[in-house]
Amino acid sequence: MPTALVTGANRGLGLAFARAYAERGFRVHACCRRPEQAHLLRAIPGDVVLHRWDARDPTATRQLAEALACEPIDHLVANAAVTGPRDRPEALDIPGWFEALHVNCLAPLQLAAALRRQVAASRARRMIAISSALASLADNRSGGLWAYRCSKAALNMAWRNLAIEVAREGIVCVLLDPGWVRTDMGGPAAPLAPEESVAGMLAVIDRLTPADSGRFLSFQGEPRAW
Ligand SMILES: NC(=O)c1ccc[n+]([C@@H]2O[C@H](COP(=O)([O-])OP(=O)(O)OC[C@H]3O[C@@H](n4cnc5c(N)ncnc54)[C@H](OP(=O)(O)O)[C@@H]3O)[C@@H](O)[C@H]2O)c1
After folding, report:
1. What is the mean pLDDT of the chain?
2. pTM (two decimals)
3. 175 CB within 6 A, ligand 1
4. Does the CB atom of residue 81 touch ligand 1 within 6 A?
5. CB-based contacts of 162, cutoff 8 Å, min separation 6
6. pLDDT tens, 58-89?
7. CATH class of the 3-218 domain in this structure
8. C-alpha of residue 10 to centroid of ligand 1, in Å
């Protein structure tokens, strides 16, 4: 049975990933901050194992890796993220920036490092980070969302470095832009339902080859500008 690990699995795109993987017959390791309150996640039929995981808790990732010590992980999906402060350069919310950098960049990297052996031991060996079109330096025409953009741009560099670091183990690391999606983060005006975005991303993930490692792709598989 293939296995997927998804962070931020209690709502939004993470919940849609958990549902889609369970439907496909994967064992799903679903990570969230408050499993006891994750009613939608608990209601998913299939082999769904909930794990308490807070991106900002330094022991949480280590404990997760220990709990999964003997479990190959085919698809690791680093999805959890925060928008961060909506501040201005003249009045930066430094703690808010640190939170965004921690949750959006450092925690995914720590997770990948902690579970590297389990991913390398799987058949599919995929590490997917959910990035954003807003991470793109080349495509930034509208500005704003400073902390979010910077944290996701940092994630892009970290994941690209990771792709080089783990290439010899046959692990394929890709950054995916899910599009603009109707979640708490994306808001009600977004054109895409979470299920549509996730269906697109899973089709992209299915098609990945080692030559794709280190790429930044849209949910439809198109290259995104760095
Ligand atoms: N929606 C869009 O239009 C859009 C566009 C581009 C990229 N993205 C990216 O897609 C991914 C999913 O976004 P979404 O739209 O589904 O967002 P969302 O609805 O706001 O969900 C965010 C998820 O991240 C979790 N999370 C936040 N802080 C956490 C922490 N410290 N530890 C553990 N989990 C934490 C949340 O858990 P709690 O419930 O505990 O807060 C929640 O499960 C993110 O990486 C986001 O940047 C989204």
Report:
1. 98
2. 0.99
3. no
4. yes
5. 109, 112, 127, 173
6. 899 999 999 999 999 999 999 999 999 999 99
7. alpha beta
8. 9
